[in-house]
Amino acid sequence: MKFVDEAKITAQAGDGGNGCVSFRREKYIEFGGPDGGDGGDGGSIYLIADTGLSTLVDFRHKRLFKAGRGTNGGGRNMTGAKGDDLVIPVPVGTQVYDDDTGEIIGDLLKGQKLQVAQGGFHGLGNLRYKSSTNRSPRESKPGTEGEIRNLRLEMKVLADVGLLGLPNAGKSTFISAVSAARPKVANYPFTTLYPNLGVVYIDTHQSFVIADIPGLVEGAAEGAGLGIQFLKHLSRTKLLLHLVDIDPEDGSSPIEAIRTIEKELVKYSEELGERERWLVLNKIDLIPEDMQQSFSDEIIKMLNWQGKIFNISAVTGQGTKHLSYQIMQYLDDEQTQS
Predict the structure, then answer these.
(1) In this predicted model, what pLDDT tens digit does every residue of 147-205 receive, in sequence order?
(2) How sure is the predictor about 233, in pLDDT bands with cuts at 50, 70 and 90?
(3) pTM score, whole prediction
(4) Which of 129, 174, 245, 257 is deepest in the core (most CB within 10 A)?
(5) SS3 of the chain
(6) Can you name the CATH fold of 6-155?
(7) CATH 3.40.50.300 segments of the chain
Protein backbone atom coordinates (compact mmCIF):
# COMPACT_ATOMS: atom_id res chain seq x y z
CA MET A 1 0.00 0.00 0.00
CA LYS A 2 1.34 3.42 -0.91
CA PHE A 3 1.94 5.63 2.09
CA VAL A 4 -0.09 8.81 1.96
CA ASP A 5 0.74 11.39 4.59
CA GLU A 6 -1.03 14.47 3.21
CA ALA A 7 -4.55 15.03 2.00
CA LYS A 8 -6.86 17.92 1.23
CA ILE A 9 -10.56 17.71 1.98
CA THR A 10 -13.58 19.98 2.20
CA ALA A 11 -15.75 19.76 5.30
CA GLN A 12 -19.28 21.09 4.78
CA ALA A 13 -21.39 21.29 7.92
CA GLY A 14 -25.17 21.05 7.65
CA ASP A 15 -27.40 24.12 7.30
CA GLY A 16 -29.82 24.95 10.07
CA GLY A 17 -33.50 24.20 9.42
CA ASN A 18 -35.88 27.10 8.76
CA GLY A 19 -38.41 28.34 11.27
CA CYS A 20 -42.09 27.79 10.50
CA VAL A 21 -44.97 30.27 10.10
CA SER A 22 -48.13 28.57 11.35
CA PHE A 23 -51.37 29.43 13.20
CA ARG A 24 -53.63 27.25 15.29
CA ARG A 25 -56.85 26.41 13.47
CA GLU A 26 -58.78 24.07 15.77
CA LYS A 27 -62.56 23.79 15.85
CA TYR A 28 -63.12 23.90 19.60
CA ILE A 29 -60.41 26.43 20.50
CA GLU A 30 -61.87 29.93 20.55
CA PHE A 31 -58.63 31.82 20.18
CA GLY A 32 -55.95 30.66 17.75
CA GLY A 33 -52.51 32.15 17.48
CA PRO A 34 -49.05 31.51 16.14
CA ASP A 35 -47.62 28.04 16.71
CA GLY A 36 -44.75 27.80 14.22
CA GLY A 37 -41.80 25.87 15.65
CA ASP A 38 -38.07 26.42 15.32
CA GLY A 39 -35.93 24.53 12.84
CA GLY A 40 -33.22 22.06 13.88
CA ASP A 41 -29.51 22.85 14.11
CA GLY A 42 -27.28 21.64 11.29
CA GLY A 43 -24.89 18.78 11.93
CA SER A 44 -21.24 19.58 12.67
CA ILE A 45 -18.15 17.75 11.39
CA TYR A 46 -15.52 16.24 13.67
CA LEU A 47 -12.22 14.44 13.17
CA ILE A 48 -11.27 11.72 15.63
CA ALA A 49 -7.89 10.00 16.07
CA ASP A 50 -8.21 6.29 15.33
CA THR A 51 -5.41 3.88 16.25
CA GLY A 52 -6.64 1.47 13.57
CA LEU A 53 -5.53 3.79 10.76
CA SER A 54 -1.95 4.30 9.64
CA THR A 55 -2.29 6.41 6.48
CA LEU A 56 -4.49 9.08 4.91
CA VAL A 57 -5.07 6.91 1.84
CA ASP A 58 -8.84 6.90 2.37
CA PHE A 59 -8.93 10.59 1.46
CA ARG A 60 -7.37 10.14 -1.96
CA HIS A 61 -10.71 9.48 -3.65
CA LYS A 62 -13.26 11.08 -1.35
CA ARG A 63 -12.59 14.72 -0.64
CA LEU A 64 -15.99 16.24 0.15
CA PHE A 65 -17.61 15.44 3.48
CA LYS A 66 -21.09 16.73 4.37
CA ALA A 67 -22.97 16.65 7.64
CA GLY A 68 -26.77 16.46 7.84
CA ARG A 69 -29.06 19.46 7.42
CA GLY A 70 -31.44 20.42 10.21
CA THR A 71 -35.09 19.90 9.26
CA ASN A 72 -37.57 22.76 9.16
CA GLY A 73 -39.88 23.55 12.06
CA GLY A 74 -43.56 22.65 11.87
CA GLY A 75 -46.95 23.72 13.14
CA ARG A 76 -48.13 23.01 16.70
CA ASN A 77 -44.77 24.31 17.91
CA MET A 78 -42.95 21.31 16.45
CA THR A 79 -39.18 21.77 16.47
CA GLY A 80 -37.20 20.43 13.51
CA ALA A 81 -34.79 17.56 14.03
CA LYS A 82 -31.10 18.30 14.38
CA GLY A 83 -28.95 17.28 11.43
CA ASP A 84 -26.66 14.29 11.94
CA ASP A 85 -23.09 15.09 12.92
CA LEU A 86 -20.33 13.55 10.83
CA VAL A 87 -17.34 12.00 12.61
CA ILE A 88 -14.37 11.24 10.36
CA PRO A 89 -11.63 8.88 11.64
CA VAL A 90 -8.03 9.88 10.90
CA PRO A 91 -4.70 8.32 11.95
CA VAL A 92 -3.22 9.21 15.31
CA GLY A 93 -0.68 11.98 14.78
CA THR A 94 -2.68 13.87 12.16
CA GLN A 95 -2.26 17.64 12.13
CA VAL A 96 -5.16 19.66 10.73
CA TYR A 97 -4.66 22.97 8.91
CA ASP A 98 -7.04 25.49 7.38
CA ASP A 99 -5.93 25.22 3.76
CA ASP A 100 -7.03 28.77 2.95
CA THR A 101 -5.18 30.54 5.77
CA GLY A 102 -2.49 28.01 6.70
CA GLU A 103 -3.59 28.20 10.34
CA ILE A 104 -3.20 25.02 12.36
CA ILE A 105 -6.54 23.94 13.80
CA GLY A 106 -5.46 20.96 15.86
CA ASP A 107 -3.10 18.06 16.43
CA LEU A 108 -4.89 14.77 16.98
CA LEU A 109 -3.39 12.31 19.42
CA LYS A 110 -4.90 9.03 20.59
CA GLY A 111 -8.66 9.27 21.15
CA GLN A 112 -8.84 13.02 20.63
CA LYS A 113 -11.80 14.54 18.83
CA LEU A 114 -11.72 17.88 17.02
CA GLN A 115 -14.56 19.94 15.58
CA VAL A 116 -13.55 21.28 12.17
CA ALA A 117 -16.85 22.68 10.84
CA GLN A 118 -19.72 24.12 12.87
CA GLY A 119 -23.28 23.29 11.89
CA GLY A 120 -25.69 26.11 11.06
CA PHE A 121 -27.94 27.56 13.77
CA HIS A 122 -31.65 26.75 13.69
CA GLY A 123 -34.16 29.25 12.32
CA LEU A 124 -36.93 30.66 14.52
CA GLY A 125 -40.66 29.99 14.11
CA ASN A 126 -43.28 32.71 14.28
CA LEU A 127 -44.24 31.71 17.83
CA ARG A 128 -40.98 33.35 18.91
CA TYR A 129 -42.18 36.73 17.61
CA LYS A 130 -45.49 36.81 19.49
CA SER A 131 -45.80 39.78 21.84
CA SER A 132 -48.43 41.95 23.48
CA THR A 133 -48.34 44.27 20.50
CA ASN A 134 -47.99 41.60 17.82
CA ARG A 135 -50.50 38.82 18.44
CA SER A 136 -50.35 37.31 14.95
CA PRO A 137 -46.78 37.54 13.71
CA ARG A 138 -46.12 36.25 10.24
CA GLU A 139 -42.39 36.55 10.66
CA SER A 140 -39.94 33.68 10.88
CA LYS A 141 -36.20 33.30 10.57
CA PRO A 142 -34.37 30.92 8.25
CA GLY A 143 -31.58 28.72 9.53
CA THR A 144 -28.01 29.84 8.99
CA GLU A 145 -25.64 28.08 6.61
CA GLY A 146 -23.25 25.46 7.92
CA GLU A 147 -19.56 26.26 7.97
CA ILE A 148 -17.54 25.17 4.95
CA ARG A 149 -13.80 24.71 5.44
CA ASN A 150 -11.04 23.55 3.17
CA LEU A 151 -8.67 21.46 5.25
CA ARG A 152 -5.20 20.07 4.80
CA LEU A 153 -4.44 16.94 6.76
CA GLU A 154 -0.83 16.12 7.48
CA MET A 155 0.21 12.97 9.26
CA LYS A 156 3.39 12.60 11.28
CA VAL A 157 4.19 9.20 12.67
CA LEU A 158 4.24 8.85 16.45
CA ALA A 159 7.40 7.08 17.53
CA ASP A 160 9.91 7.36 20.34
CA VAL A 161 12.90 6.63 18.13
CA GLY A 162 13.53 7.50 14.49
CA LEU A 163 16.00 5.72 12.22
CA LEU A 164 17.72 7.80 9.61
CA GLY A 165 20.52 7.29 7.14
CA LEU A 166 21.27 7.01 3.46
CA PRO A 167 19.45 4.41 1.36
CA ASN A 168 20.77 0.88 1.95
CA ALA A 169 22.21 1.77 5.38
CA GLY A 170 20.40 -1.25 6.83
CA LYS A 171 17.54 0.51 8.63
CA SER A 172 14.88 -1.96 7.54
CA THR A 173 17.07 -4.90 8.52
CA PHE A 174 17.70 -3.32 11.92
CA ILE A 175 14.03 -2.73 12.72
CA SER A 176 13.31 -6.33 11.67
CA ALA A 177 16.01 -7.54 14.05
CA VAL A 178 14.77 -5.68 17.14
CA SER A 179 10.98 -5.74 16.63
CA ALA A 180 8.18 -7.72 15.03
CA ALA A 181 7.93 -5.25 12.14
CA ARG A 182 8.68 -6.79 8.76
CA PRO A 183 9.50 -3.99 6.32
CA LYS A 184 10.66 -4.76 2.81
CA VAL A 185 14.37 -5.60 2.75
CA ALA A 186 16.34 -5.66 -0.50
CA ASN A 187 19.71 -4.65 -1.85
CA TYR A 188 18.66 -1.52 -3.73
CA PRO A 189 17.91 2.07 -2.74
CA PHE A 190 14.51 3.21 -1.46
CA THR A 191 13.10 -0.17 -0.51
CA THR A 192 11.31 1.76 2.24
CA LEU A 193 8.72 3.98 0.58
CA TYR A 194 6.75 4.80 3.73
CA PRO A 195 7.58 4.77 7.45
CA ASN A 196 7.41 1.40 9.18
CA LEU A 197 6.67 1.29 12.89
CA GLY A 198 7.95 -1.42 15.17
CA VAL A 199 7.47 -1.99 18.89
CA VAL A 200 10.61 -3.07 20.72
CA TYR A 201 9.83 -5.02 23.90
CA ILE A 202 12.53 -4.88 26.57
CA ASP A 203 10.47 -6.35 29.41
CA THR A 204 6.81 -7.04 30.23
CA HIS A 205 6.05 -3.39 30.90
CA GLN A 206 8.92 -1.81 29.02
CA SER A 207 8.75 -1.06 25.33
CA PHE A 208 9.28 1.72 22.84
CA VAL A 209 8.20 2.47 19.30
CA ILE A 210 10.78 2.82 16.57
CA ALA A 211 10.16 4.25 13.09
CA ASP A 212 12.05 3.22 9.98
CA ILE A 213 12.13 6.44 7.96
CA PRO A 214 12.86 6.15 4.21
CA GLY A 215 16.49 6.77 3.26
CA LEU A 216 17.62 10.33 2.72
CA VAL A 217 19.86 11.63 -0.03
CA GLU A 218 21.75 14.88 -0.48
CA GLY A 219 19.25 17.66 -1.11
CA ALA A 220 16.46 15.93 0.84
CA ALA A 221 15.62 19.15 2.70
CA GLU A 222 14.80 20.73 -0.68
CA GLY A 223 12.76 17.72 -1.79
CA ALA A 224 15.36 15.52 -3.50
CA GLY A 225 14.68 11.79 -3.39
CA LEU A 226 11.80 11.25 -0.98
CA GLY A 227 12.71 14.63 0.51
CA ILE A 228 10.95 16.56 3.23
CA GLN A 229 7.89 14.34 2.77
CA PHE A 230 9.56 12.05 5.29
CA LEU A 231 12.02 14.31 7.10
CA LYS A 232 9.07 15.83 8.95
CA HIS A 233 8.21 12.46 10.49
CA LEU A 234 11.35 12.73 12.60
CA SER A 235 10.04 15.85 14.36
CA ARG A 236 7.99 13.87 16.90
CA THR A 237 10.72 11.42 17.88
CA LYS A 238 12.65 11.79 21.15
CA LEU A 239 15.83 10.13 19.87
CA LEU A 240 17.44 9.72 16.47
CA LEU A 241 19.51 6.68 15.51
CA HIS A 242 21.82 7.50 12.63
CA LEU A 243 22.63 4.22 10.89
CA VAL A 244 25.74 4.10 8.76
CA ASP A 245 26.85 1.37 6.38
CA ILE A 246 30.55 0.99 7.17
CA ASP A 247 31.20 -0.89 3.94
CA PRO A 248 29.05 0.62 1.15
CA GLU A 249 28.97 -1.40 -2.07
CA ASP A 250 29.61 1.75 -4.13
CA GLY A 251 32.90 2.32 -2.29
CA SER A 252 31.78 5.64 -0.83
CA SER A 253 33.10 6.96 2.47
CA PRO A 254 31.08 6.34 5.67
CA ILE A 255 32.37 9.70 6.92
CA GLU A 256 30.84 11.51 3.96
CA ALA A 257 27.60 9.58 4.43
CA ILE A 258 27.38 10.82 8.02
CA ARG A 259 28.11 14.42 7.04
CA THR A 260 25.51 14.32 4.25
CA ILE A 261 22.74 13.39 6.67
CA GLU A 262 23.90 15.95 9.24
CA LYS A 263 23.67 18.72 6.64
CA GLU A 264 20.15 17.72 5.61
CA LEU A 265 18.91 17.65 9.21
CA VAL A 266 20.19 21.16 9.89
CA LYS A 267 18.84 22.47 6.57
CA TYR A 268 15.38 21.13 7.37
CA SER A 269 15.28 22.23 10.99
CA GLU A 270 17.91 23.57 13.39
CA GLU A 271 15.91 22.08 16.26
CA LEU A 272 16.00 18.67 14.59
CA GLY A 273 19.72 19.04 13.94
CA GLU A 274 20.32 19.59 17.65
CA ARG A 275 18.17 16.65 18.80
CA GLU A 276 19.82 13.75 20.63
CA ARG A 277 21.35 11.57 17.93
CA TRP A 278 23.33 8.36 18.33
CA LEU A 279 25.70 7.07 15.70
CA VAL A 280 25.15 3.39 14.87
CA LEU A 281 27.82 1.74 12.74
CA ASN A 282 26.15 -1.14 10.93
CA LYS A 283 27.69 -4.28 9.39
CA ILE A 284 30.48 -4.27 11.99
CA ASP A 285 30.72 -8.06 11.53
CA LEU A 286 32.62 -7.37 8.30
CA ILE A 287 35.55 -6.12 10.37
CA PRO A 288 37.72 -8.51 12.44
CA GLU A 289 36.62 -8.47 16.07
CA ASP A 290 39.95 -7.20 17.37
CA MET A 291 39.78 -4.19 15.04
CA GLN A 292 36.15 -3.14 15.63
CA GLN A 293 36.81 -0.80 18.56
CA SER A 294 39.71 0.94 16.85
CA PHE A 295 37.53 1.41 13.76
CA SER A 296 34.81 3.23 15.73
CA ASP A 297 37.47 5.24 17.60
CA GLU A 298 38.80 6.43 14.27
CA ILE A 299 35.30 7.50 13.20
CA ILE A 300 34.91 9.47 16.44
CA LYS A 301 38.27 11.19 15.89
CA MET A 302 37.62 12.13 12.27
CA LEU A 303 34.14 13.53 13.00
CA ASN A 304 34.96 14.97 16.41
CA TRP A 305 31.83 13.06 17.48
CA GLN A 306 30.57 14.00 20.95
CA GLY A 307 27.54 11.73 21.20
CA LYS A 308 27.12 8.02 21.79
CA ILE A 309 28.33 5.52 19.21
CA PHE A 310 27.45 1.84 18.82
CA ASN A 311 28.82 -1.00 16.74
CA ILE A 312 26.16 -3.41 15.50
CA SER A 313 25.34 -5.93 12.84
CA ALA A 314 21.65 -5.90 11.96
CA VAL A 315 22.06 -9.18 10.06
CA THR A 316 23.74 -11.21 12.82
CA GLY A 317 22.17 -9.33 15.72
CA GLN A 318 25.53 -8.34 17.19
CA GLY A 319 25.13 -5.34 19.51
CA THR A 320 21.41 -4.85 18.81
CA LYS A 321 20.24 -6.04 22.23
CA HIS A 322 22.68 -3.77 24.06
CA LEU A 323 21.59 -0.83 21.90
CA SER A 324 17.91 -1.54 22.63
CA TYR A 325 18.54 -1.56 26.38
CA GLN A 326 20.44 1.73 26.13
CA ILE A 327 17.55 3.30 24.21
CA MET A 328 15.04 2.16 26.82
CA GLN A 329 17.17 3.59 29.63
CA TYR A 330 17.48 6.92 27.81
CA LEU A 331 13.71 7.16 27.24
CA ASP A 332 12.99 6.27 30.87
CA ASP A 333 15.42 8.95 32.06
CA GLU A 334 13.81 11.51 29.73
CA GLN A 335 10.35 10.67 31.05
CA THR A 336 11.53 10.96 34.66
CA GLN A 337 13.07 14.38 34.03
CA SER A 338 9.98 15.69 32.28
Answers:
(1) 999 999 988 766 789 888 887 788 888 988 898 766 544 443 433 445 677 888 888 77
(2) low
(3) 0.67
(4) 174
(5) CCCCCEEEEEEECCCCCCCCCCEECCCCCCCCEECCCCCCCCCCEEEEEECCCCCCHHHCCCCEEECCCCCCCECCCECCCCCCCEEEEEECCEEEEECCCCCEEEEECCCCEEEEECCCCCCCCHHHHCCCCCCCCCCCCCCCCCCEEEEEEEECCCCCEEEECCCCCCHHHHHHHHCCCCCCCCCCCCCCCCCEEEEEEEECCEEEEEEECCCCCCCHHHCCCCCHHHHHHHHHCCEEEEEEECCCCCCCCHHHHHHHHHHHHHHHCHHHHCCCEEEEEECHHHCCHHHHHHHHHHHHHHHCCCCCEEECCCCCCCCHHHHHHHHHHHHHHHHHHC
(6) Spo0b-associated Gtp-binding Protein; Chain: A, (2.70.210)
(7) 161-337
